[in-house]
Every structure is written in structure tokens, then in C-alpha cells.
Amino acid sequence: GANARATRASRHVVRAGRFETERTYIMIKPDGVQRGHVGEIISRFEKKGMVLKALKTYQCPKAVAEEHYKDLSSKPFFGDLVNYICSGPVVAMIWEGPGVVKSARLLIGATNPLESAPGTIRGDLAVEVGRNVIHGSDSVESAEREIELWFGDKAGVVDWTPTITPWVRE
Ligand code: ADP
After folding, report:
1. pLDDT tier, 1 (very low <50, low <70, confident <90, very high otherwise)
2. Ligand 1 neighbour 138 (Cβ under 6 A)
3. What's the mean pLDDT in 71-94?
4. Complex ipTM, two decimals?
5. Ligand 1 centroid, distance to 130 Cα (angstroms)
6. Is 22's C-beta closer than 6 angstroms to any atom of ligand 1?
7. Where is the Nucleoside diphosphate kinase-like domain positioned along the sequence (predicted)?
8. Structure pTM?
9. What is the pLDDT of residues 13-60, one digit of tens each?
């Protein structure tokens, strides 16, 4: 009956909590948003089995873009990069899953879209390194730094585990 079903469901919720996970910061850049690729990109992460923990549209202030890319501040393209990221709304997200930092980078593809494999987001959707549609953290440490930078106020960040998890993870 309903009670047994509820018990089974809650057992799955409890069991799902045991899975090891990590988090990554993913951002659809302004070109990806303007070109209408938000749905397709989110869909690729969902289909892979990654779990969406936060999502917002955001008009990035220059200071945030500069902080995000501070390791590249000596590069000749740094000014253009900051202007590009601030040129329109981005979609900022936290995704969670096993090895999600590396796994997301594989879904995204190489930095230069001319070198990213077909089937990857950049390989399928982009041609220029300065318009490469999406960002994904390059290490667990960068991910935690970027999540703090973009979601430091915790607004919209939800800790939840899909009830389907035991059918995705063993
Ligand atoms: P990734 O985004 O794949 O981690 P990087 O951290 O090396 O790559 O670079 C950050 C972003 O800077 C790239 O995604 C791209 O938007 C931009 N970028 C990198 N290299 C160049 C370049 N040679 N010319 C213009 N923009 C670049």
C-alpha cells in the first residue's frame, strides 16, 4: 500500500546519500545564451546523469569576470575575454556527480573549438576560441573557488539527491 511505497521511496532517498560526489562550476557564456543553446547544453549534462544543484541567469560585473579569469590576467586576450563574459547574460550552474569536474570537461571539449571532438559541446556548437560557448572548472580546487565566487551568497543552491540515483549509481 501507500505506506510501503513511501517507506521504499524514503529508503532510496537515504541510500542515495551514501554516494561519493564532487561539484563543478559550469557557465554558459553569453554567446551560448544568445544563440539559444541553454536547453541543449543543460540536457547534455542531465542525460549524462549529473545533478543540477544551482542555476541562475546573471549579468556579470567586470570585477567578477576579472576575478574568475585572474590566472589569465597577463594574456593578451584578457581584456577581450572579460568584455566577452560581460557582454550579455550568462547561465551559471553547479553540477554534481562522481568525478564531475573531469567528466564535464570531456563533455565540453577542448578550449579551441577547432580542436574539440565532434560530439562535445564546443566541437558541435562553436568555431572560435573567443566564442566557445561554455566554461567548466579545470580542477576540484578551481571548482570550489569558482562556486564561492559565483554562488557565495548560496542563493538558489539546493542540496538534494534525485530518488533515481540508485538506478544511475551502484
Ligand atoms: P578553458 O575555458 O577550456 O578552461 P582556458 O582556461 O585556457 O580554457 O581559457 C579560458 C577562456 O579564455 C577560454 O575558454 C576562452 O574563452 C578564452 N581563451 C583562451 N585562449 C584564448 C585565445 N588564444 N584567444 C582568445 N580567447 C582565449
Report:
1. low
2. yes
3. 98
4. 0.98
5. 7
6. no
7. 21-158
8. 0.91
9. 434 467 889 999 999 999 999 999 999 999 999 999 999 999 999 999
**What counts of helices (H) and strands (E) characterise the chain?**
8, 4
Judge if the beta carbon of residue 135 lies within 6 A of ligand 1.
yes
Q: Could you tell me the three cell numbers for 44?
A: 547534455
**Is 2 within 8 Å of 69 (Cβ atoms)?**
no
The yes-or-no verdict on residue 12 having pLDDT over 60 is: no
Report the nearest-CA residue for atom 17 of ligand 1.
130
Cell of 148: 564561492
CA dihedral of 46, 50, 54, 57, whole degrees rounded to 10: -40
> Which of the 8 DSSP states describes residue 116?
S
Ligand 1 pocket: which of 25, 27, 85, 111 to mutate (most atoms within 8 A of CB): 111
What are the Cα distances from residue 161, in Å, to 54, 76, 107, 117, 134?
13, 43, 22, 31, 25
